[in-house]
Amino acid sequence: MGLFNKLFKKNEAAQTPASAPAPVSAQTPASAPTSAQESLCPNKDTIMGFALLHTAELSEDELTGAIKEEFGPETELEVSRDKLFSVIVSREEAQFICTLMPFAVPDHEVEKLFPFHSLSPEAELEMGRHQAFLIIAGNGFELEKKREACLAFNRLCGAVMRLEQAVGMYMGGAGLLLEKETYLRHVEIIKSPVGEDRNYFPAPLWIRVLLYLDDGKKMARTDGLADFGYPEVCVFNTHQEPEALYQQLYLMAIEEITGRGVYRSGDLIRIDEETEAVCKLADGVLHIIGT
User: What is the distance between the alpha carbons of residues 158 and 177, in angstroms, rounded to a whole number?
Assistant: First the structure.
């Protein structure tokens, strides 16, 4: 399996939309989770990521100070040193816990993902040298409130990313690596008026889009949508350029996560003025055929 970026150059702007533009197509509103969503997302009330650190030397004052700087001095925190150093952050959106692991992510898991990302050489070097990581997890919310919990999670991760020790984020469920500066740019958008728009969601911080070849066919698929209760999406045997694929899949993810639409088997999607594709669900993946 080869990557599209061996054939084409990726467009950074296409990968990181600041907000959700108009829908790709008009879809059925997602006012409530369906039974299919429930079965696809058994851990819908939990979110988790890993903040990679170049050292395990992280003091209580550094971590709690960064969190309070982000959320305010009145933020309710609970510090524990029972076996591992952890900080519990109580927010209206969810309860979060940050736990310091004084070793690198096992089995070279991070380094194995480098070929599937377009990281800068400096970011690869820093992430590859990480010596510790913070497990950042949130729970205690329902699927319909997950957007708000995710944005609070992103702000918490952003507070950690501002620490000198931080080198990048790893979202293990989606196999997604994010450079420190990229993450912080998105957090600034979340904190801007754009982030207050219910139609906004920072999909590139949660969804990985993978471009690859399968028996000579150009393919593109998501990783991470299942965590929100939706099937992953695969664009099958496409003729579209990488920039268009990134935009299309991110916009589809934003529509579903924000409740603006649900894509189902049999739906037609207008790709452009001349092209209309059909959705087909197979093996838990929603395939888009005809692009």
Answer: 14
Residues pairing with 269 in the sheet:
277
- Residue 139 CA to residue 161 CA, distance in Å, equals 21
Q: Which SS3 state, helix, strand or coil, does residue 29 take? A: coil
Global confidence as pTM: 0.82
- For residue 87, give the nearest of 117, 113, 51, 111 by alpha carbon: 51
Query: Which two tokens mark 192?
Result: 């801007």
Give, in degrees to the nearest 5, the angle at Cα 260 between 255 and 264.
75
- For 226-265, what is each residue's pLDDT tens digit? 888 889 999 988 888 888 889 989 999 999 888 888 888 8
Name the residue ranges covered by the structural domains of the chain: 4-30+203-289, 46-196
Q: Which of 4-13, 145-154, 186-195, 270-279 comes out lowest in average pLDDT?
A: 4-13
Q: How many CB atoms lie within 10 A of CB 137?
A: 17
CA distance 228 to 40: 8
**DSSP conformation class of 21:** -
The continuous run of DSSP H or E covering 242 comes out as: helix 242-257
The tokens of 169 are what? 């984020």
At 28, list the tokens: 């059925």
Residue 151 neighbours by CB under 8 Å, 6+ apart: 93, 190, 195, 201, 202
- Cα(168)–Cα(10) distance, integer angstroms: 20
> Residue 283 contacts by C-beta under 8 Å, 6 or more apart in sequence?
none
